[in-house]
Amino acid sequence: MKTFINPLREKVLNTLDFNISMQAAKVYGSLLHTMDIGRYDDPEMEKVLINRAKESLSLSSESVPNKDCLHIITEAYIIGGHTRLMEKLAGMHEIPPDLLITRYSDEKALERCKKIFTAVHSIEANDLIETVKQIHSFCKDYKRIVLHIHADDIATVVACGLIQQVRELNVYFVNHADHAFTFGSAVANYYFQLSSYGARLDKLKTIAGQTSFLGIPVSDIRPEKATTSSEVSANPSFFSSGAAMKFKPFRGENINPLIAKILDKWPQTTFTIVGVSMLTNFWWWPLKLRYGKRLRLLRYLPYDQFISLTREADFYVDSYPFPGGTAFAEQILAGKRGIGLMSRVQGYSPADKLKRPSVGDVIDTIDHYQDDGVVEEIVAVNGYEAVKKRYLACLYQNEKSSFDMETLVPWGGDTQSLVVRNKVFVPISPEVMKYLYRNEKKLFLRIFLRMSLFNKAYISWNAIKK
């Protein structure tokens, strides 16, 4: 696949029109983030674009910074872990920092951000050149920048790089989607690590600054009555949640056999999954037909109902083949007994120690549940206060953390598990495919022919709608 992508890369590096180069770079970043081809950063491209911006744009970066810290996020969401992580880190500052949003954001998410940050700014630009200019105008007033950007947000990287060529600007990169490609390696003074999976991929990157373990923070508050008994009730209830794609069978890995075994072993029990769609997630259909009302598949639940459901469940089952990150750890700290299958994408918290390699081993864990002291380890690694200490020490004292998650959770994953082979299973943005169809038809055709039937239908449907 690398040979397919290279012409697009060459277009970014060699096209004389800077705006066209920036547009191609944005598509390049989005494409590589979606399709794992074994390339996880491209600092050479970033440097070329920063230098071209310096030549093309008349921007002054010489002002003396008079503000402390600016967080930058590409888009803010009301759901998911990306925005939530940013909000938690922002809450760790003694004085709330400012926020810059470089693209569209959900109105509810925007209102929530305004309650957390001192000031919230948004970019309003019609092209990437103007976007770079506006981001630059905000960043030049700050001493330090914390990035929570999308993989394809090349405009933010270029804006930060322009300032760094003139004066010292400390950039801290929070790579939430650490399993895939992203821009940012050329400008990050500190590259925060969240998992052992991401830390292993970072070794394949050319990062200009230093890496520092951060960890995704979870609440340190534990319930007054946590589940300590290893006894299982006659009709235990099971609960899981996550984006639909986290449960989609992938290269032989499938959570369905575990669900079937649980529902067969306990004939009166129920298994509830929140975040999935019975209509479009066809891989659930055989199980739903077999178990009927005992398998509850819910697209969405209001927050109060979600919390009520988690309290009633006896066991929380982490999503698989793709894990839920620290959602698993949070449920364990909330008093739930946590179980799950060991994923090849792993190392986000010590809670992974409670996962097992086979269905039979998980069933045995249910029958003889022990938390193996994992609660205290979660607090030490992912607890809010522990992460806060690492985060602020790095920002204000230049102290990096060399903690290695693998000292607690021995590696059993596979960093090559997501690499694209013959089929492209992950949905590619319709906007990206539209760009390729108009400007890079050969690449468009090569990718489209390798898409799964589901993704072809998804792209075709979006093309018809518009």
From TrEMBL:
Keywords: Transferase. GO terms for molecular function: transferase activity. This is Group 1 glycosyl transferase.
